[in-house]
Amino acid sequence: MDIKKAIKHLIQLKDEDFARYHIYNDPIEGRIPSYLREDIIREALICGNEEATYAMEKLGMVKGIGWADLVELAQSLGIQIQFKKCDNSLQYVYFGSYEDSGVITLYEETISKGEALAQEYNIEEFKGISLREVVLAHEIFHHIEARKKDLFINSFRINLWKLGPYTHRSRLICTGEISGMAFTKRLLNLQFCPNVLDVLLLYPYNEILAEQLYKEITMSSHQKYILKSHYL
Ligand SMILES: [Zn+2]
User: How far does residue 142's CA lie from ligand 1's centre (Å)?
Assistant: First the structure.
C-alpha cells in the first residue's frame, strides 16, 4: 500500500463515510436497522458538534483552540490528565485512554512517534496539527459522554430481543466514537476527519493492519445503499 496515497484518499472522505465505518464495527451492528443508520449518523454528528460549540463558548473562543485551552477545558470538567510512556498491546497502538473515574491517560512516547511520522510524510493538511491535542480532545469527549446522560448517544437504544412485555434494549458503542470524532474536528478546527490519523499512525507498527483498516474504512463508506438482512 502506498501510505501517502491512502492518506490523501482518506482526507477526501466525509465525516459520514467514517461514521459508516464506525457503525460497521459496532458489536451489535447486525441489529441496527438499515433505515435508521443515516439518521443515527446525522444525530451523532450533531451531538459531537454541539458539545464542541458548548466547550468553545465555555472557553470564550470562536475557533483555533490550542493545548492550554484543552487543558483548561479538561480541568473545568474535573478531569485529571496523566502521562505515561506507552501502552502497546499486540494489535492496537494506544495514544490515549479514558476511565470513567475522570482520568485521561496520554501515552507520550507513542504520541511523539506519531507526530514525527506525520511530519515525515509532509502532507499539507497535517501541517500544524498537534496529535496530542487530537488525542486529548477525543478523550475529553468520552468524559462528556460519561457524564451527560441526556445526550442522544446515551439515550438512543436498539431493541435487541423481546420476551413477553419486556424488550431488552442496548445502546450503541459506535455513536460515542462518531460524536467524539465530530467533537474533535470542530474543537480543533481540523480540515479532515481525525480518524485519518488512525491509519497513518498504525502504519509504522503494522503495515498489514493499516492496509486492512484503510480498506475497511473505504469499503464501509460505500455501504449507504447496501441493505443487510437481519431480524429486528
Ligand atoms: Zn474513543
Answer: 7
Question: Which letter does DSSP use for residue 195 in this model?
Answer: T
By the 8 A CB rule, do 170 and 160 touch?
yes
- Ligand 1 centre from 165 Cα, in Å? 35
Distance 3 CA to ligand 1 centre (A): 23
Cβ atoms of 197 and 134 within 8 Å: the answer is yes
Structural contact between residues 95 and 186, judged by C-beta atoms closer than 8 angstroms: no
Please state the pTM of the whole predicted model: 0.89
> Could you tell me the pLDDT band of residue 226, with boundaries at 50, 70 and 90?
very low
Alpha-carbon span 163 to 174, nearest angstrom: 26
d(CA 189, CA 53) in angstroms, rounded, equals 11
* pLDDT tens readout for residues 74-95: 999 999 999 998 776 656 678 8
- Centre of ligand 1 from the C-alpha of residue 163, in Å: 33
Ligand 1 centroid vs 19 CA: distance in angstroms? 13
CA 108 to ligand 1 centroid distance, Å: 17
